[in-house]
């Protein structure tokens, strides 16, 4: 299939503050629906780069094109229509209700009032903020997580095809952060969006990114999929940046079909009932991390730690999608270790 033209195309962006170069010669192109995470240590220029995409910061040199048009040529209301923006501090207006905050951009764009009300209610409902309870509340009456969701609803209100997010979960405690992140990932509203997200949290980057751009001192170190950065680091900075999280990132990026594809044994799904294990079927697409959690949950509920638990993996055999392959915890760990070793030596 021929590649379609990029939704965002950044060429040779550079920006300095005084004598300090903050973003140095960054280029990338994003296809529709792609999520790019800008990752790197504090002060490496992530926010400055993000803010150059919607002209909150002007580059010294280089260009940003959105759907083939130079953003410098787009009038401000066109930019607002095309690009939503979510920031860590949320930035809700304290004297506006939740509904009024969400409606800010559509009102600036002079959308129809009935349509704005409908859209606001729809978004609040999708983001688990029932309008009957939340629409009339003020930001100070909400928790941090609820405020964050209102900030996201506000960015989505005019239905822009592009969303920029600057540490959108940064102000939340780790537990709220991880559950909101999961909700965020599963939100149908965001599936079609092209997104650029800034974070310095490696786990967050790996959970949300299609591709990651890792920066250091404003210089791009590597642009690639999480798997490419982990198994084929471009330089020692990339390797060392992920070193502390190496095992957990491997468990997150590798999926059952990556480590089990060589397994030939298996049974037909219809014969499983006779084995009385029909509830322990998982698809081949789950991550190794999720599969390990599944093992812990079934051995905790079975109450018979001496019997090795078996799960059945479905979908490994594309010619026969109903075929199930049995898997034990030790077999999974063995296959995982072997795969990692192979990937590291390629
Ligand atoms: N308006 C400004 N004036 C002067 N220097 C600035 C300005 N904005 C950013 N900087 C400097 O540019 C560098 C990069 O800042 P930036 O906020 O882009 O980094 P970051 O990677 O997003 O950092 P963090 O993860 O800590 O938010 C920093 O050294 C910062 O002090």
Automatic annotation (TrEMBL):
GO molecular function: ATP binding; ATP hydrolysis activity
Pfam family, one: ABC_tran
Protein family according to the UniProt entry: Belongs to the ABC transporter superfamily.
The ABC transporter domain, residue ranges: 8-242
Protein name: ATP-binding cassette domain-containing protein
Species the sequence originates in: Hymenobacter rigui
UniProt-listed InterPro entries: AAA+_ATPase, ABC_transporter-like_ATP-bd, ABC_transporter-like_CS, P-loop_NTPase
Claim: Amino-acid biosynthesis is one of the keywords in the record: no
Domain of life, source organism: Bacteria
A Gene Ontology BP annotation from the UniProt entry: quaternary ammonium group transport
Keywords: ATP-binding, Nucleotide-binding, Transport
């Amino acid at each position: 299939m021929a590649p379609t033209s990029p939704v965002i195309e950044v060429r040779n962006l550079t920006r300095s503050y005084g004598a300090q170069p903050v973003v140095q010669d960054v280029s990338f192109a994003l296809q529709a629906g792609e999520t790019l995470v800008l990752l790197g240590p504090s002060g490496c220029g992530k926010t400055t780069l993000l803010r150059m995409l919607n002209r909150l910061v002007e580059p010294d040199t280089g260009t940003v094109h959105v759907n083939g048009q130079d953003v410098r040529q787009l009038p401000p209301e066109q930019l607002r229509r095309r690009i939503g923006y979510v920031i860590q501090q949320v930035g809700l207006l304290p004297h506006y209700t939740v509904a009024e905050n969400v409606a800010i951009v559509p009102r600036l764009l002079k959308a129809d009032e009935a349509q704005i009300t409908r859209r606001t209610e729809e978004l609040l409902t999708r983001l688990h903020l029932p309008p009957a309870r939340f629409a009339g509340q003020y930001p100070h009456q909400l928790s941090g997580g609820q405020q964050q969701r209102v900030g996201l609803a506000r960015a989505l209100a005019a239905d822009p095809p592009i969303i920029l997010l600057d540490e959108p979960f940064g102000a939340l405690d780790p537990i709220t952060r991880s559950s909101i992140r999961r909700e965020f990932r599963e939100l149908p509203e965001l599936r079609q969006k092209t997104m650029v997200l800034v974070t310095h949290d490696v786990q967050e980057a790996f959970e949300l990114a299609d591709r990651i751009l890792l920066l250091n001192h404003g210089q791009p170190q590597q642009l690639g999929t999480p798997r490419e950065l982990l198994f084929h680091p471009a330089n020692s900075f990339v390797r060392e940046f992920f070193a502390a999280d190496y095992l957990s990132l491997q468990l997150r990026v590798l999926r059952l079909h990556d480590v089990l594809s060589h397994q030939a044994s298996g049974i037909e799904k219809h014969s499983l009932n006779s084995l009385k294990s029909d509830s322990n079927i998982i698809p081949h697409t789950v991550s190794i991390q999720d599969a390990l959690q599944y093992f812990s949950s079934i051995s905790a509920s079975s109450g018979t730690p001496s019997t090795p638990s078996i799960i059945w993996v479905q979908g490994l055999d594309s010619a026969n999608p109903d075929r199930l392959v049995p898997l034990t915890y030790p077999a999974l760990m063995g296959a995982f270790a072997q795969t990692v070793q192979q990937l590291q030596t390629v």
